[in-house]
Amino acid sequence: MLYAYQEKGQGLVEYALILVLVVLIVFVALLLLGPTIGNVFSNLNNSLSTISGLWGSPGPFPHIGV
After folding, report:
1. Between 58 and 22, where is the model more confident?
2. What's this model's pTM, rounded to 2 decimal places?
């Protein structure tokens, strides 16, 4: 009976260790890829700003003509 109780605790510890491992992998991936992802969004923002500049600034609904 006591052995079965310890086995449940062992499963909980294993899940906690897996969770810690996943968190570490995500953290390292964000550290390595963070600047690259930031550059992608900056380039996208600059491209959209350039396109918007070519059309002028008609407002939030350009097809209405506000």
Report:
1. 22
2. 0.51
